[in-house]
Amino acid sequence: MNLPATPQRPTPGSFINTPAAQRHPGFRTTSANAPQLPQTQAPSQPAVVATEQPLQVTKSPLERARKAINDTLIGEASYAELDAYVGQGISSDYDIPEDPAWAPFIPLRTYRIPEEILEQYNYHQMNTKSGLFAEINHAWTFVDNQLYLWDYTNPNPEIIGYEEQPHSIVAVKLVKPRAKVFVDAITHLLVVATTSDIHLIGVSTQRGQEGVEKVSLYQTGMHTSVRGLKVGCIEGSSKTGRIFFADGRDSDDVYEVTYQQEEKWFANRCAKVNHVRKSISLPGIPFASKKTAEFVVQMTVDDTRGLLYTLSNISTIKVYHLKSETTLDLAITRSLASIITNCNHMVRSELLGPGATIISIDAISSTESARLSLMATTSTGCRIFLSSTSGTYYFGDSSSAPTSMQVQHIKFPPPQDPQPNQTSQNQMTPYKAQSQVAIGSRVLEGTIHSNRYTPGYFLCFASEGDTSDYLFMSGPDSGRIARPQDLSQAPKFIEMGFSLSLGAKVQDVGLVTPPFAATSAPRGFGNELATQFDAPVAEFAILTNYGVQTIRRRRLVDIFASAVKQKGAYGSDGLEAEIKKFVRLYGRPETIATALAVVCGQGQDVASDSRVINVTDQDVLEYARTAFVEYGGKAQMIDSTFDVNTNNDDNIRPSPRHEGITLYISRLVRSIWGSRVLKEGSTPIGGLKIDPTISLEKLRIVQRNLTHLQEFLDKNKNFIDGLNGPEALNRAPTQQAEKEMQGENAALTSLVQLLKSIIEGISFVLVLFDERVDEIILSLNDTSRQRARELTFVGLFTDPDGKELAKELVKAIVNRNIAKGSNVETISEALRRRCGSFCSAEDVVIFKAQEQVTKASEAGANTELGRTYLNDSLRLFESVAGSLSREYLEVTIIQYTNMAFYAGAIRLALKVAQESDRGNRALAWIREGRLSPDTRQAAYESRTRAYDLIHQVIQAVDQASNDQPAVVDGVVSAAARRRNEAYDQINSSEDEVFQTNLYDWYLQQGWSDRLLEISSPHVVTYLKEKAKEAPQYGDLLWRYYAHYNNYFDAALVQLQLAKSFFTLKLSQRIEYLSRARANASTRVGGISEMRSTKQQTRQDLLREVSDLLDIATIQEDILDKLKSDPRTASRRDEILSQLDGNILPVTDLYNGFADQAGYYDMCILIYQAADYRNAADIEATWQNLIEQSALTAESESQGNPWQQVANVIRTIGRRVRTSETIFNVPMLLQLLLKWDAAYGHIIPEGSRPDDDRYWSSWVLDIFLELRVPCESILATLETLWYENRAPLAGRDRRHITKWMIYTMEKWWQESQSLSAIPFGSEENAIGVEDVLKELIANWNLDNGGVWQERARDLRDRVAAALR
Q1: What are phi and psi of 1313, to 5 degrees?
Q2: CB 3.0-4.6 Å disulfide test: which of 415, 618, 785, 1142 passes with 438?
Q3: Residue 101: exposure state from Cβ atoms within 10 A (0-12, 13-18, ≥19)
Q4: What Å distances lie between residue 853 and 66, 360, 868, 1183, CA to CA?
Q5: Residue 218: how many CB atoms within 10 A of its CB?
Q6: Cβ contacts of 801 within 8 Å, gap of 6 or more
């Protein structure tokens, strides 16, 4: 059976500017009366952004289902208010079905008047009247001075009589009493008006079994005189307890019966007050013309607005304002003529002509309508809706009096020959109201009485003759009002009508059930569909002279059950036509929800014996199942341009079937959904009293209905698209269809999970209130107790916090029962069976483990049995570590610690931490630098909470071990043994996150030495990471390496510290490098290590450290020079800050400092460090250094310049002598000798040039002191001698001769001390001999001098040695 697609409502949250595919004209996407956004050209940039997919937040199934229920409840609460469809104008829209299956009302039962009452009628015929107290299921009648009440629903009722006064009764009314005047047992007051007095009788009602009301009457002693008046009508205010009555004969005055608990000085316990005529009335003049008296025939009170309406016998309506609890002020008077005139401005009709009168009025509360306040019914059956206004505003409260009353709407009777709006079985045209209003129908002409009950039930009685009356009933069709066919117009006032010939004269009518109210505000107030399964079905009682006829309102679910039963009997075609009719009139989701309700046993019917029974006919249930399965529709993709390869369930609009299920669930739980679970009160003695906010019986009903739904869905899941498993995806014709089916599956599965959660949640509440709830609540901590006060059912069903709180309550229940000596397995198993989500198998294990801990405490923690219990509890706790709550863990750790079970406490905390982060996300977060914000940070914080408990255990362990000696009589003490067990657990843990946390804690406590005692690779890993943060952690790391003789790695760390960018002084860096060089030079492995690859690495490290140390030393020297250099006074701090920190590159040292400052000695050192090989630059720098040193000596009077030069050369030479490039002996020796010859020793004028007083060997001594080989020195001197260049030319060559002889003598002495061979070898000796011969042959000194003798002597010794 195929149906046209159901028109879809606008989807909230749609992208306005997103282009969509062209839809079929039959689909309405926006409401015509909704505000339209201006159609503007979207800028290019936003258009691009709109196409990007926003970041999707994945909802859990319960969150998704909760949103669906919340959205549905909001939609149901947005049902049109009365003003929306009873607006300004006229109407006569009725749907009077000819098919009894569609009847909106159904006669229920007729109750006969008891024989005892009829006998009283026969005996007394003077004064009699009957009526109903329908709210307590009682009827009444008075005969003369006797009043009788009976329960008309009881086949053998007890007759309750009131016969204590002698005067004839004229009026009776049941009202609500004023608060605090009577005892709480008095729920009503029976106001009995006689020809002499008004009596107030206390009424106590108590509902017994099967809903029977037990009524008792109590004398209050309150009465007041009404002599001279004939009380015609009585009315009471349920809100304030005020009682009003009117004279039904001579005036339209309104009186009030005042009553109070005790008499006062100027007030009796009971009195009457005339609020209209305050002065004393004068007697009438006999000869005056007689005028028909106006008197009140009806009164009604609107407590929400503080108004009293009266209707007189001439159809005048008066409005009184109840400004205070003692006043009654006349505010408005509207005569029949003014009302009819007002109506004629809207329409002219014979029904509102001169012969029409107003026969009844009904107040409309402000909770039902903000604008309409009163409905008046005419004798022709027209309903006139009036509004009260105060100034320019509609009157909606009791703070001020209304000033005017206007006609807003006129509802005419149904047409003479109504054409039912139910279309034939074969037609599919949408419902249409009649094009013209029937303003002349006289169907209800002769109306004698009418009543209106919320949310618009209208009961109209018209006379059919002297012996019978005709009843017309109507009620709003909520389904069609909620779903208007034309969204461009306001909803129409559509009513479904029902007529019935009573066959007797009506005496009274009343509403048996509580007044209807879907909400406490006009919007949503009249939504009958929302309360179908949550509130009593409206029932009315009509008293006639033959008995009491009850009539029941039929819900949509009842109509559906009857309709499919009737049409289904004609075959599938008839059933299909009926289902399509429902779809057309009420929409597919409503039809599905109704069919589902029937399947789940919500349909009701009236049996042949007038009992209301649930529909259990298997044929009917099967018809409803067919409607649910086959007419559920399909899911649709909202945006067809959406990328189907992405997973976004929000882009899938679930099927009407999903909407129907959601509707049904929301209607079942609407009264409990947002309510709090419990409420606090106090006992008479001031103790805490906890009561359920929702009655337990109500919760059981909701649970039973939801269970039926759950069973149905489970039984039929193979036939329901979205629940029939993944194999259904294989039947999807397109990828889009597959995505739609996936979205449908996600939506339906979430509802199924919600069903389970609600059912188990209600079971939990029932279990909770089976216990001493007050004791359980008091056992919670303050935070949990406050959370329990604020816990709502929706929070319990869908919120993780609510479920966690429920588990705390379950724990409290179990602990309470354990304390009472109950068996934990029996209790927990019962809890798990009834509400498994709140007491899972893991919870049972936890309870058992807790029981073992309790037994261990009782047995003694130090006993063998106690330790066995503790180990058993630890094993149980570890098996459910992933489900162990923080509170349970904290309590258990404290218990373990108190019983000195330290190792178990640490082990359990580590297990819980590990289970809370099984993916080790916390470790990944730590290794990646602890980025924030980061979702993995929560996993780390969760683990940290468990580690904090371990810290507490460690402190307890240390404290216990410090208080007791480690060894007693040569035996390790228990405290020391347990300390060792605890630290074994800590140090053997492979949990790197824990080790990191533990070491952090150690450092926070100042226990860095503890890290040196731990032999674990985790310490190294930890310190390596920490060393990146601060130098003190690097210090700790190299100390750790050195502690375990790992000098190589210690040197590496020290090198890294020296090269780091931490804020360190240069001296500290040099210290690190010095230590690194020492550690790198240390070997502990012997020959095997020397042959390994590590030895090569060690050499590389040592070389790098040495090179960097050389540079750092140079930088330090430059720093020291700059500190005392007067040239840097203005920029000293800046320059020093650059140097006294990181080790700078040699290029920066040279260009930025040494060269610019003219520190040539530093330049030479930098040449060596940089392995600089430019000979010209090196020579020039040496030359500059020599000259600078000489000038410095002269300027500062530091002695002979050559001495200063000698000191500088000697100092620098010690540091660079190993470099042949920098310390080039021939080059430097020549420079020094030439400088010495030119400037070092100035020969005074007149002195002999060869005077030895003016000759010095300091240059040669420097080189010899620096262990420069004599042969190198001699070779250089020999070169100079042969070159014969100034300043060592001519006679000045004599200096060279002396230097050569001096050098050869030193060489001779050195060789003699080292070996027997002169000059180290025979070849060297021959060379020296040749040089000596040459010098002697070309002697340029004075003959016979000392130097000649020394030369010859040396020659002879060399010659002798060669022989």
Answers
A1: -80, -20
A2: 415
A3: middle
A4: 40, 76, 10, 90
A5: 14
A6: 787, 795
Please list, in sequence order, all residues whose beta carbon lies within 8 angstroms of the beta carbon of residue 1274, skipping any fewer than 6 positions away: 1300, 1303, 1304, 1307, 1328, 1331
Please give the distance of CA 812 from its chain centroid, rounded to a whole number: 26
Structure tokens at 1144: 């700078």
Confidence (pLDDT) at 19: 37
HSE, side-chain direction, 13 A CA sphere, residue 457: 23
Contact residues for 147 (Cβ-Cβ < 8 A; gap 6+): 140, 141, 161, 162, 163, 169, 172, 192
Structure tokens, 980: 């060792």
For residue 933, say if its preceding peptide bond is cis, omega within 30 degrees of 0: yes
- The per-residue pLDDT for 284 is 44
Chain segment 75-122, per-residue pLDDT in tens: 999 999 999 999 899 999 999 998 999 999 999 999 999 988 888 777
Please state whether beta strands 94-95 and 495-501 pair in parallel, antiparallel, or not at all (unpaired): parallel
pTM recorded for the entire structure = 0.69
- Of 119, 121, 157, nearest in space to 139 by CA: 157
414/412 Cα distance (integer angstroms): 7
358 is written with which tokens?
């107003």
Amino acid letter for position 598? V
Give me the helices (H) in 681-799, please: 696-715, 735-770, 773-778, 782-790, 793-798
Residue pLDDT, tens place only, 826-848: 777 777 777 777 777 777 788 78
Contact 26, 5 (CB under 8 A): yes
Instruction: Give the Cα separation of 763 and 1212 in Å (integer).
Output: 94
Structure tokens of 632? 């559920």
Rounded Cα–Cα distance for residues 560 and 566 (Å): 10
Positions of the chain with pLDDT lower than 70, given as ranges: 1-58, 124-125, 209-212, 266, 278-292, 391-398, 417-435, 640-649, 727-728, 966, 968-970, 1084-1096, 1197-1199, 1240-1255, 1314-1316, 1340-1344, 1363
Token readout for 349 is: 């009709």
Dihedral pair phi/psi, residue 691, rounded to 5°: -125, 155
- Interior CA angle at 687 toward 686 and 688, to 5°? 125
Q: What is the pLDDT of residue 57?
A: 55
Q: What is the pLDDT of residue 162?
A: 92
Q: What angle do CA 908, 913, 918 make, to 5 degrees?
A: 120
pLDDT at 36: 37
The confidence score (pLDDT) of residue 1096 equals: 61
pLDDT score of 302: 95
CB atoms under 10 Å from CB of 1179, counted, come to 15
Task: Single out the residue of 604, 664, 584 nearest to residue 628, CA to CA.
Answer: 664
| Residue 1161, SS3 per DSSP | helix
Amino acid 1317 reads I
Strands 678-682 and 393-394: unpaired
Please give the structure tokens belonging to residue 684: 């008479």
Helix axes of 1293-1314 and 1346-1362: crossing angle, nearest 10 degrees: 40
Query: How many Å apart are CA 473 and CA 450, to the nearest integer?
Result: 10
Beginning with the edge strand found earlier in the chain, give each strand of the sheet holding 138-143 in spatial order: 128-133, 138-143, 146-151, 160-162
Q: Element (H or E) spanning 200, and its range? A: strand 197-207
DSSP H or E segment with residue 1121: helix 1093-1124
User: What's residue 938's pLDDT?
Assistant: 87
Task: State how far the Cα of 226 lies from the Cα of 993, in Å rounded to an integer.
Answer: 91
| Cβ neighbour number for residue 1241 with a 10 Å cutoff | 15
pLDDT at position 418, please?
Answer: 55
Q: Which residues of 779-813 are buried (b: 16+ CB within 10 A; e: fewer)?
A: bbeeebeebbeebbbbbbbbbeebbbbbbbbbbbb
